[in-house]
Write a structure and sequence with these properties.
Elements: H1 3-15, H2 20-40, E1 59-69, E2 76-82, E3 85-90, E4 97-101, E5 108-113, E6 120-126, E7 129-134, E8 139-144, E9 150-155, E10 163-165, E11 170-173, E12 178-182, E13 189-194, E14 196-197, E15 200-201, E16 205-211, E17 214-219, E18 224-228, E19 235-240, E20 257-263, E21 268-273, E22 278-286
Helix pairs in contact: 1-2
Length: 288
């Protein structure tokens, strides 16, 4: 009943001699109903946001340029080029090492073995030194690049997986979707980004390599390398390396793809894997 009609009904009852207490009760009900309607106001539907469509990151395949012998006992955790020289970090307790390797033959030219309690992880060459992470010991090592003499240690609060640098910051992965940016002197964290593709986090980020302003990252237990914008963690491309190892003869046990190195002056990209007998030089091919 609308309020105006209700008042007219009350007036009619009054003229007909209705009980005054009944009239007061009816007026109270009408006023309460009117107040509730005023407070609630008109019902408004919430606007439904328009769906945002993001173009998928492009996918690249590869062309094998060359394949070089690689130590099949090397549990590769990190790979790096510097001044034409290939450096490698290997893992496993009791077998972890830092190596200088002849790219053409796979011969180990120089080696530093880590103490047995450390599981070696990623490496990067930075301003005449080599930085090497360990997996669950929260400890990193800094060596002289030429002599492999241990210069100092540093610590971090997460697991250590991959490491690279952009010339100003050390960039580190910990097996999650997070990349950590570290000060190269104090190794304190100065920032971080979450790696994501179409707003979905990309986890198990492993070995890293900084190439032309982007970060190339192995995704553990896959044949994929993510190309990442370090400014916001967005995946700008994928490299699908499926079928790479079977292009060459393989005997013995092998493990997952892991290891990215870039020879910057020559523009050459190298990849390998844990216990792989081959180091591959590849060129990227856009998938049609």
């Amino acid at each position: 009943m609308k309020t105006s009609r209700g008042l007219r009904f009350v007036i009619t009852l009054f003229h007909r001699g209705a009980n005054p207490l009944l009239l007061v009760a009816i007026i109270f009900v009408l006023l309460s109903t009117s107040a509730c309607l005023y407070r609630s106001g008109p019902t408004r539907r919430k606007p439904v946001p328009s769906p945002v469509t993001t173009a998928p990151a492009p996918v690249y395949t590869y062309r094998v340029v060359n394949a070089y012998p690689h130590d099949p006992q090397a549990f590769t955790q990190g790979l790096a080029f510097d001044n034409g020289i290939l450096y490698e970090g290997t893992g496993l307790y009791g077998s972890s090492s830092l190596r200088r390797v002849d790219r053409e033959t796979g011969e180990v030219l120089q080696i530093h073995n880590l103490p047995a309690e450390y599981f070696g992880e990623g490496i990067t060459v930075y301003q005449g030194t080599i930085i090497q992470l360990t997996w669950q010991s929260y400890t990193g090592f800094i060596y002289d690049r030429d002599s492999f003499d241990l210069l100092r240690q540093f610590s971090y609060p997460t697991e250590g997986w991959g490491v690279t640098h952009d010339g100003e910051r050390i960039i580190m992965s910990d097996g999650t979707s997070i990349l950590h940016f570290l000060d190269p002197v104090t190794f304190s964290e100065t920032g971080s980004v979450e790696v994501h593709d179409n707003d979905m986090p990309v986890t198990r980020i492993n070995e890293l390599e900084h190439i032309n302003g982007e970060i190339y990252a192995n995704v553990w237990q896959t044949d994929e390398i993510a190309i990442i914008d370090p400014r916001d963690g967005r995946v700008t491309g994928w490299i699908d390396l499926s079928g790479l190892l079977p292009t060459r003869e393989v005997s013995g046990q092998v493990d997952v793809l892991n290891g990215i190195a870039y020879d910057s002056p020559a523009g050459r990209l190298f990849v390998t894997g844990k216990l792989w007998p081959w180091l591959f030089e590849i060129e990227l091919v856009a998938r049609q």
